[in-house]
Amino acid sequence: MTVITNHMPTAELQALDAAHHMHPFTANAELAAKGARVITGAKGVYLTDSEGERILDGMAGLWCVNIGYGRDELAEVAVRQMRELPYYNTFFQTTHVPAIALSAKLAELAPGDLNHVFYASGGSEANDTNIRLVRTYWAEKGKPSKKIIISRKNAYHGSTVGSASLGGMAGMHAQGGLPIPGIHHIDQPNWWAEGGDMTPEEFGLERARQLEQAILDLGEDNVAAFIAEPVQGAGGVIVAPDSYWPEIQRICDKYEILLIADEVICGFGRTGNWFGSQTMNIRPDIMTIAKGLSSGYQPIGGSIVRDEVAEVIGRTEFNHGYTYSAHPVAAAVALKNLEIIEEEDLIGHVQKVAAPYLKQKWEALTDHPLVGEARIVGMMASIALTPDKEARAPFATEPGTVGYICRERCFANNLIMRHVGDRMIIAPPLVISPEEVDVLIDRARIALDETLDELK
Ligand code: PLP
Predict the structure, then answer these.
(1) How far away, in angstroms, is 156 Cα from ligand 1 center?
(2) Where, if anywhere, are coiled coils annotated (predicted)?
(3) pTM of the complete model
(4) Does the beta carbon of 157 sit less than 6 angstroms from any atom of ligand 1?
(5) Which of 92, 144, 286, 334 has the highest CB neighbour number within 10 Å of its CB?
């Protein structure tokens, strides 16, 4: 058998990859024709590829490598835990120290009385858990008709059948017969694209009040929960106008609708606080967590629920769980990751150093002819590309065409920046230094210039 290593020629690795590996969210035939870039290592905010190029990772992987790459401490914890107890479950009246310690830590970090954690291997599984959690909660409270979950168009909550149904991505719903019944989508608070002549504040209220209207239309007795990301990530780093979240909170309180904050991206420092709910000043009943929980070093996610929700669920046997719920190696690595965030005061670094510096540089990109609005919360940011800033106009081309060109130009200039339609987005590791922010911005500007050239 051929031993496949980092030292093989890139073309051979690419050919083998194309022959046997199906990439997620990828047109695989198109990729096979040009060959995937082979990533061989990473340190800090930089990736290295098989040609020896250093790529600045403006997306922290998939918004997850919050503490940066190459942290030996996490590797050591993983090895130790694998030797001591590589696997055991917590299904049948057993538990283990990594699960106990991580849960206690999360209860300490999470706001209010969010004190109980149900684990999954990632965000999609955790959101699937949430569907069953909220329905079981209401059934136990004698209101079994409260089943519908309200979500938002262009939200991303994962890729399993349940979580993709919660999400509001038209392209995902178009494949595989989604959404499943019992999920209702209202419009997103994307002022730049959909605000028309309204001020952002008027628009924020209008979009929040769609929740109230949906509850009234569907019947208060049929609605279980509202789920939303504090800042929509994969939808294009859409930051709601200031008027939006207070109104959403008021409506959830008034109609006794559980509020699920999907913190998969926003959690663990990304928005400048431990959780995006704190940044947006909301009081969720359930928070979905993953990604930054382990900085991506191990696959782990979960749902953190309030005391009362846990108490109600605890009255019955909740027939739900995954083989890898509270996996000891993943839990031990996640705990160490949280300790690093605390010990190195990475939240303080984001608040005082990285985010203010990035904000100043990022917002200055609006001086570029292609850039309309620039939005940033903590260490997640977006720019809208447009042919006409005043009119907030879209390009005449198919949505995403210009964004794709820009992403390709970034990639060619050794910067990972993603596009969502014609919005460009970043979410770099939280440890990024001002000097590295300069490199990111320099490369982004070059890519924007090259995109503009290509459009001429
Ligand atoms: N929720 C949000 C807000 C996400 O951004 C993601 C992934 O990007 C998920 C859920 C799904 O998480 P996972 O890919 O770990 O299943």
Answers:
(1) 7
(2) none
(3) 0.98
(4) yes
(5) 334
